Amino acid sequence: VRCQHYPPLRALQASAALRRASDEHTKEPLTSSSQQHFDSPPAGHQPEQEPQGPHPSYTGQGGQESEDYESEEQLQHRILTAALEFVPEHGWTAEAIAEGAKSLGLSVAAAGMFHSDGSELILHFVSECNTKLSKLLEKEQKLVQLGEAEKKPIDEFLRDAVEARLKMLIPYIEKWPQALSVLLLPRNIPSSLNLLTSMIDDIWHYAGDQSTDFNWYTRRAVLTGIYNTTELVMMQDSSPGFEDTWRFLENRVADAMTMSNTASQVQSTGEAVVQGLMGAAVTVSNAETSRAVR
Amino acid sequence: VYQVFETVAKKYDIMNDSMTLGIHRVWKDILVHKMNPCPGTLLLDVAGGTGDIAFRFLNYVRSVRQRQLQRKLKHHQNLSWQEIFESYQKDKSNSLGDSQVVVCDINREMLKVGKQKAQHLGYSEGLSWVLGNAEELPFDDDKFDVYTIAFGIRNVTRIDLALQEAYRVLKPGGRFLCLEFSHVSNPLLSRLYDLYSFQVIPVLGEVIAGDWRSYQYLVESIRQFPPQEELKAMIEDAGFFKVDYENLNFGIVAIHSGFKL
């Protein structure tokens, strides 16, 4: 009985919205559900019309529901992206998200859609960085395949990939320790760990790793350790252009390379992981005490 | 409904405290915390008669604003004393950060009590009192950041109209929050709750406010009010997205939230 009740109401709203959005070309991209389109709509393009466009049946009429649900997610995506530019000033907080929503023409109350500690913003940022890294590595791989570039030796490849990924943190480096401590909250650990492992996976994939034996695990663990420790060093690095960090990275990668040829491989993997965790714990406690002091 | 609240207005706060054993303050605090307003928010509190939500909102926003100012001052470490003094002066006059709350109620008596309370407690800025009907709000479209209705929506004859009005006056991205008595699913608790509601509350009403019937009406209206899921569906019907509810005290009270996207 309920289902019968809804459609006429929804159709009315939909047709009204359609008339409003008739001069907007955003109807097409929504049906084809391509993420790319929504990363670059011009900011002054009446943002509130976009999600109102495919209004019909949030509560379910099969195909239309998933379309609508997607536009909600896409709106959230846009708000978080817009919020990133306010992070240097406000930190990874609900305030930054509110400013982001305001910049899109929405009410500041829209920040209520997200958790009040800014977790989603950080996770969104990490996921965006990982995507950027993937695209970068893919581009490089294409160049190599086309013969326009030399294939890098493994240690250089890893070094460059980690450096490129960490460089994306530079605009937000002041508030990044805060973000790290939030990512280590029990609630966020599944998602943040997921993002971390898939990024490491990606790097190894583009490095040409085709192993199907135990090596797969050790390689991932080693690189995770390298990445985490380098990130932590970067937090405390005040040298020009972060050269201390890159030197540290170079040394760690070199260590990993030499160690991978010896039997102490398994042991060093464990050590690398433990190092990573210890470093993370130290950073969290530092971040917490410095936050408390402030 | 109008007459009920006319007689009830003066003793409203006292009755609230005694009926809910003071927990209603906690509920209202939770509502404002959930709202998490930042300075510059424009709030419409409907059926907010005696101003409970409005005062909490102003307090919250004021403390957030203070923290913001403190943070800004810390960044001003390198300025001269004169510059710091000037910036402090400028910000001091803006202690609410342009946040405002409009309290709207259908009942003049309730508004009167609210205004007196505000004066008594020292709330002077950022507050307005408007007489209006939730089913037909005297405001323009797309005006408010947040719309709240605490323990008021069950007294509205046509809830769907009130929800539509809420949708209309909210800005895109605005939030709808509703705090209301709801259904307890736990059977044991439900029996105790029923016992308390039907035996104790009307008696309290007679003793404290001298009005048995109004409180009998109150308890009955709570029972007749749609349960959580149904209210959620009605809110979605009005066009809100990301509609969700949070049960407080096992369902005695529920906060529904929706966004105009």
Describe this structure in words.
- The complex is a heterodimer of chains A (294) and B (261).
- With 294 residues, chain A is mostly helical.
- Among the domains of chain A are: 72-116, no CATH class; 119-277.
- Chain A contains 14 helices and no strands.
- In chain A, helix 12 runs antiparallel to helix 13 (243-259) and helix 12 (215-235) packs parallel to helix 14.
- Residues 1-67 of chain A have low confidence and may be disordered.
- Chain B has helices at residues 2-8, 12-19, 23-35, 52-75, 81-92, 108-121, 159-169, 187-209, 212-224, 228-237; strands at residues 42-46, 100-105, 127-131, 144-150, 170-181, 241-248, 253-259.
- In chain B, a hairpin with a 4-residue loop joins strand 6 (241-248) and strand 7 (253-259).
- Chain B starts with a helix and ends with a strand.
- The model of chain B has no long low-confidence stretch (mean pLDDT 86).
- The A-B interface holds A 2, 6, 9, 13, 47-48, 51-52, 55, 58-59, 72, 75, 94-95, 98, 101, 104-113, 116, 294 and B 34-38, 40-41, 68, 74, 144-146, 170-175, 233, 236-237, 239, 241-242, 257, 259, 261.
